[in-house]
Specification:
Layout: H1 2-13, H2 23-69, E1 120-126, E2 129-138, E3 141-145, H3 151-164, E4 167-168, E5 178-181, H4 183-190, H5 200-207, H6 217-229, H7 237-244, E6 248-251, E7 265-266, E8 268-272, H8 280-293, H9 297-301, E9 306-311, E10 316-320, E11 331-332, E12 344-345, E13 348-355, E14 361-362, E15 365-367, H10 377-380, H11 383-386, E16 393-395, E17 402-406, E18 408-410, E19 416-419, E20 425-427, E21 430-432, E22 435-443, H12 448-458
Parallel strand pairs: 11-12
Antiparallel strand pairs: 1-2, 2-3, 3-17, 4-8, 5-6, 7-10, 8-9, 9-22, 10-20, 13-17, 13-22, 14-21, 15-16, 15-20, 18-19
Helix pairs in contact: 6-7
């Protein structure tokens, strides 16, 4: 016990054994921790602010690309009109949805922006892929889209045209010549998808084209009435013979719809229907045109069939306009059933020209007055024949490339305006090899009310029956 007390006194006397608490060091460490926490919090706030700005910029960029190139298979929404409200024209409606649209909503026809010559913008015409679209001219508004079709797809279109059968251009026939067609031959001409059944869409498609101008309004109404009264909504060959009731004539082939002589050309051609029941590639072409032009699908679907033309060596077509000048006394070929006038003209709002092969030499598409600020036809001379020598712009055909141009100006209210005189174009002489093209036109009547009446007329179908009956795909194996 005494030893324990002696040891305890020893420890108590040793001042170095229990050193004083390191108060200053602890205080310094506490201050250091607080400073580190403040710096970390400020750094975190700055980083998060920059991160949010980055995300906002990315979202804005994606929205910009989306609304400038379109996406998905849906129709691109039309621009709202800034003018007074007016009824929705039926061409913007599909037959199934026409009854569900409010008449107070007003739309305009979308129109691509050229920006400047040489400007390149990205467009979406097929899912999961974009294409470069380059502006070639502003007068007319003309674009070039390489790779619109692949080489393989272009070959399929040419095979389909050969399978359908190519005929020599009627533009070279004698105006006084009149050729009689039997009912079997006429039925074969009207049956665009060659399925042995005549649908409403086939009659409308051919009657809208210049090649169908020989189908008089009287005969067209008879066939149209036969389709409406037939419970199945289609006509077989025997039913067609009963309805047509006689041999129809292919007369005055060299006269245009507006009474003027048609453009002369040397080629063979045929027409391929782009609607239901045809080859899936042709339906894809229609869908691509819809996505590229950003027009309502109902307008593109009810336009005329694609014209496929083959130019042999020495083939050409003189300069011409695809559409006709607007005039109150004229009715469009595709809407003349809804009009009270008899003088029919072609109303082609825009043209999509597809190059199906690359010509060996020659065969350029010439726009003789493109972007010509001093356009005077009298000074330039006869451009219908000198379009290649005096052409301001010539485009060499490259397989798969598409050209898009507007044949009409805007009327200032988002609808079809006057004919664009600068859209004059022609096909130069093919000096070696041959050239294949496919022309897709979108038909829109400058008279908006007449276009609406026409849309209502063609949307009719017998109750309980589909407007487009199912039938086989004639070219499915190609």
């Amino acid at each position: 016990m005494g030893e324990y007390k002696d040891s305890l006194h020893e420890f108590e006397g040793d001042s170095d054994f229990f050193p004083p608490p390191p108060r200053h060091r602890v205080g310094r460490e506490r201050i250091h921790i607080q400073k580190s926490s403040v710096c970390s919090r400020a750094y975190f706030v700055v980083v998060m602010a920059f991160f949010h700005l980055y995300i906002i910029n990315i979202i804005a960029l994606l929205l910009y690309v989306h609304y400038n190139t379109g996406s998905g298979e849906q129709d691109v929404p039309l621009e709202k009109s800034t003018g007074p409200p007016r009824a929705v024209p039926a061409e913007h409606q599909t037959p199934s949805s026409a009854a569900h649209l409010s008449p107070e909503i007003s739309f305009q026809l979308p129109r691509l922006e050229g920006i400047r010559v040489g400007h390149v913008q990205r467009v979406s015409i097929v899912p999961d892929r974009t294409h470069n679209m380059r502006t070639l001219s502003l007068k007319p508004l003309l674009f070039e889209i390489p790779g619109f079709l692949s080489v393989e797809e272009s070959n399929v279109v040419m095979q389909l045209a050969q399978l359908k059968g190519l005929t020599h251009s009627s533009f070279l026939t004698n105006p006084d010549q009149e050729e009689q067609l039997t009912q079997d031959e006429l039925f074969s001409l009207l049956d665009l998808n060659q399925d042995g059944l005549l649908q409403r869409e086939e009659i409308l498609s051919l009657s809208q084209s210049t090649d169908g101008s020989w189908l008089s309004s009287y005969n067209l109404r008879k066939i149209h009435t036969g389709l409406e009264t037939n419970p199945s909504g289609v006509l077989s060959l025997q039913e067609f013979k009963r309805v047509s009731g006689g041999v129809l004539h292919y007369g005055s082939a060299a006269q245009g719809l507006d009474g003027h002589t048609k453009v002369r050309q040397r080629s063979t051609h045929t027409r391929l229907y782009l609607g239901e029941g045809t080859h899936h590639l042709l339906k894809s072409v229609r869908n691509r045109v819809t996505r590229l032009t950003r027009l309502p699908s109902s307008l593109v679907d009810l336009s005329e069939a694609m014209e496929v033309v083959r130019y042999e060596q020495g083939g050409f077509s003189h300069a011409h306009h695809d559409s006709s000048p607007t005039h109150p006394d004229n009715s469009c070929t595709h809407t003349h059933l809804a009009a009270n006038t008899s003088n029919q003209v072609a109303c082609r709002y825009l043209t999509v020209l597809l190059y199906l092969n690359s010509a060996d030499s020659g065969g350029e598409t010439s726009f003789p007055v493109a972007d010509n600020r001093t356009y005077e036809e009298e000074v330039l001379g006869d451009l219908s024949q000198q379009y290649c020598d005096k052409g301001n712009l010539k485009v060499k055909p490259v397989a798969g490339t598409a050209l898009l141009w507007y044949n009409h100006l805007s009327d200032g209210n988002g609808w079809v305006g006057e004919l664009d005189e600068f859209s004059l174009h022609g096909d130069c002489l093919v000096t070696r090899g041959f050239k294949w093209t496919g022309s897709v036109w979108v038909n829109i009547d400058p008279d908006q009310q007449r276009q609406e009446r026409y849309q209502r007329l063609v949307s009719w179908h017998p109750e309980g029956h589909s407007k487009t009956p199912e039938h086989g795909d004639f070219h499915q194996d190609l």
